[in-house]
Design a protein that fits this description.
heterodimer, A: mainly beta, seven-stranded mixed β-sheet, B: mainly beta, about 45% strand, globular
Chain lengths: ~110, ~130
């Protein structure tokens, strides 16, 4: 199975900050990576697919990059509604696997 | 508007069974692959499995942790995806979400996991 790691596991930030979350796959997954935002008690919200492409309605402050094994999610100009947990997911090969998550808080 | 609504969760004893449903609206359900994802209390997301569309023979894929105990099926006439869960144990306690694999963009990439339901809670306890 492909293992996904994320760093950091948590980070503290302030409104207006720019933060970067890294996701690493244990083997080459090309660009088959998604990013999701989740708030407590809510369903995940889809942000990015194919490593760098936006789902409809996702603001441009979110950006994704990478291919192969190393990927990043950058959030520019953090707003209060952006404080959440972020997960990456590889869908290059079954079984699909999520990263452990990165909690972004104050 | 695309909507996914899970149902069927509840309290079940260890060793019991449950069938979860995911009812879809706002799109042609029969044309889309669908996934199940779960989240144990206070834990991260775990992919459970996928059910492919009719064109792909309604074939399925599963995570190793559930293979042999969980079965994904669908009734396209009812726009509904199912997850049959057998031999439940306490580690299966989780919120279960369904999600859709959308169509392809102009570059040929699928909009994987573009829409999610709100989830249904399964609690396994004696």
């Amino acid at each position: 199975d492909i293992q996904m790691t994320q760093s950091p596991s948590s980070l503290s930030a302030s409104v207006g900050d720019t933060v970067t979350i890294t996701c690493r796959a244990s083997q080459d997954i090309n660009k088959y990576l998604g990013w999701f935002q989740q708030k407590p008690g809510k369903a995940p919200k889809s942000l990015i697919y194919a490593a760098s492409r936006f789902f409809s309605g996702v603001p441009s402050k979110f950006s994704g990059s990478g291919s192969g094994t190393d990927f990043t999610l950058t959030i520019t100009g953090l707003q209060p509604e952006d404080f959440a947990t972020y997960y990456c997911l590889q869908y290059s090969a079954y079984p699909y696997t999520f990263g452990p998550g990165t909690n972004v808080d104050f | 508007e695309v909507q996914l609504a899970e149902s069927g969760g509840g309290l079940v004893q260890p060793g019991g069974s449950l069938r979860l449903s995911c009812t879809a609206s706002g799109f042609t359900f029969s044309d889309y692959y669908m996934d199940w994802v779960r989240q144990a209390p206070g834990k991260g997301l775990e992919w459970v499995g996928r059910g492919r569309d009719k064109a792909s023979g309604h074939t399925t894929e599963y995570a190793a942790s559930v293979k042999g105990r969980f079965t994904i099926s669908r009734d396209d006439s009812r726009n509904t995806l199912y997850l049959q869960i057998n031999s439940l144990n306490t580690e299966d306690t989780a919120v279960y979400f369904c999600a859709r694999r959308g169509g392809r963009d102009a570059s040929g990439y699928f909009y994987d996991f573009d829409y999610w339901g709100q989830g249904t809670l399964v609690t396994v306890s004696s």
